[in-house]
Amino acid sequence: MFGLQYIWDSILQYEAVLRSPYFPVFFSITVYLSFCLPFVALDALSSRVSWIRRYKIQQKTSVSWKMMWSCLALSLYNHAVYIFPLSVLHWYWRPVSYPVMAPGLLRVIWDLAACLLLFDFQYFVWHLLHHKVPWLYRTFHKVHHKYTSTFALATEYSGAWETLSLGFFAAVNPMLLGVHPMTEMLFHILNMWLSVEDHCGYDLPWATHRLVPFGLYGGAPHHDVHHQKFKSNYAPYFTHWDKLFGTLHSE
Question: Which of 240, 157, 154 is nearest to 198 (CA)?
Answer without folding.
Answer: 154
